[in-house]
Write a structure and sequence with these properties.
The chain is mostly helical. It contains 16 helices and no strands. The chain folds into two domains: about 170 residues, no CATH class; about 210 residues, MFS general substrate transporter like domains (Growth Hormone, Chain: A), CATH 1.20.1250. Helix 1 runs antiparallel to helix 7, helix 3 packs across helix 5 and helix 13 packs antiparallel against helix 14. Keywords: Membrane, Transmembrane, Transmembrane helix. Pfam families: PUCC (PF03209).
Length: about 425
């Protein structure tokens, strides 16, 4: 028995909870550290890079879920760890106001927990989807669950932004407690009982993890797609830690307005994902390769617009440009995710979790690298030029990476397979 549509939506609620907690660290807490507490942007950049670096353990979590089964246990336990990390991260920001070193120590611990929680819960969830979803539903399942994650990010950012003004530390902790506690409860209710009703568990495989990892890495498709994920996701995440500070330092946004800007951006991502999902699954229009390329090139153009607005000093609004950027980001992301879901089921059987873990690790490393690179570059450039051109130069660098990603997609993603089958890669095994 495979997952029903209702069960797929229920698992999508877990993705929604993951996004809801993580967005607090990349938008609200990041903005508070840089603007309200006047800390260098590289500090939240390092913390976020640390939690992404912890996610290099994703292949190990995926392998354990392949060989031990009981993915529900990993999903719920991971969400609890993530919630504790999210609450601790908010407390760490407030500690910076009284003791830098105490705030830093708590933040390092909290972001480490965030990385472990996302790795354990997210990888096990995707592995469950890959093993228990009927092949003809995988593309739609990928679209549904990731749309729900983006919806969680957008709704959380918009709602938190609306309630956070006027900002007070007590209000921040109250809001974070509601978000993190609610995520744990909703995750447990959403995932409970699903795994027992579907064909998703594997017989224990006593092969050591490193042997299983080498087995997957030996697959040429897996290797090439890993490289593509790293390059494209580096471009995707490079603006993640600098957009809210950019809005505050250059456009004068309040903490609530900056958080709402993040929500608007992810609303654009949601719309882009819907367009690709409907076009490929319902209208049968366009190959995944073309959607990936269009998303990358559109993202590059939108980043150029975002960079220009700060330098023109013409009083033009930032939010529409950010929504357009999110829209093209969503087009690219859902097409890449659909390909990832399909490829997870190729090669040696019972290694879906390991493959998803490998690509999840590549994405996490790229996210940490891209976010840290963007933050560090802004810090360095602000020492030698005004804020607007410093941020603008980093945005334009990100645009170049998106163009390179489009070129790579043109060369490696097969456009001959129907879009509903989620195209793979051209090179053979």
């Amino acid at each position: 028995m495979t997952l029903s549509w209702l069960q797929i939506v229920r698992l999508g609620l877990v993705q929604m909870c993951l996004g809801a907690i993580v967005v607090l660290t990349t938008s609200t807490l990041n903005r508070l550290m840089v603007v309200e507490y006047a800390l260098p942007a590289v500090l939240p950049g390092l913390l976020v890079a640390f939690h992404y670096g912890i996610q290099i353990t994703r292949p190990s979590w995926g392998f354990m879920s392949d060989t031990k089964g009981q993915r529900t246990r990993f999903i719920i336990a991971g969400m609890i760890i993530l919630a504790l990390g999210g609450y601790g991260a908010a407390a760490g920001v407030l500690l910076f106001g009284t003791s830098f070193w105490a705030g830093l120590a708590l933040s390092i611990l909290a972001y480490g927990l965030i990385g472990l929680g996302v790795a354990a819960s997210g990888t096990s969830l995707l592995a469950l989807l890959a093993t228990a979803t009927a092949p003809e539903r995988r593309g739609a399942a990928a679209t549904i669950t990731w749309l729900m994650m983006i919806a969680g990010i957008a709704i959380t950012a918009g709602t938190v932004g609306a309630f956070l003004d006027p900002y007070t530390p007590a209000l921040l902790m109250k809001i974070v407690a509601i978000v993190t506690g609610g995520a744990v409860v909703l995750t447990a209710l959403a995932v409970w009982g699903i795994e027992r009703r579907v064909v998703a568990q594997r017989e224990p495989d006593e092969m050591p993890f490193l042997d299983g990892f080498r087995e997957v890495w030996a697959e040429r498709r897996a290797r090439i797609f890993t490289l593509f994920v790293f390059l494209s996701m580096s471009a995707y995440f490079m603006q993640e830690l600098i957009l809210e500070p950019y809005s505050g330092l250059v456009f004068g946004y309040t903490p609530g307005q900056s958080t709402q800007l993040s929500g608007a951006q992810n609303g654009g991502v949601f719309l882009g994902m819907v367009l690709v999902g409907v076009s490929t699954s319902v209208l049968r229009f366009g190959s995944l390769r073309n959607w990936v390329i269009a998303g990358c090139l559109g993202s590059a153009a939108a980043l150029g617009l975002v960079a220009s607005l700060g330098n023109l000093d013409a009083g033009l609004p930032l939010m529409p440009a950010v929504v357009v950027m999110g829209f093209f980001n969503g087009m690219f992301a859902v097409a890449a995710i659909g390909t990832m879901m399909a490829l997870a089921g190729e090669g040696r059987d019972a290694r879906e979790g390991t493959r998803m873990g490998l690509w999840g690790a590549a994405q996490a490393i790229a996210a940490g690298f891209g976010g840290l690179l963007g933050a560090a570059a802004v810090d360095g450039l602000r020492q030698i030029m005004e804020d607007a051109p410093a941020f603008g130069l980093v945005f334009m660098t990100e645009a170049v990476l998106f163009v390179l990603s489009a070129w790579m997609a043109l060369r490696i993603i097969d456009s001959n397979k129907p879009s509903t089958e989620n195209a793979g890669l051209v090179p053979g095994e």
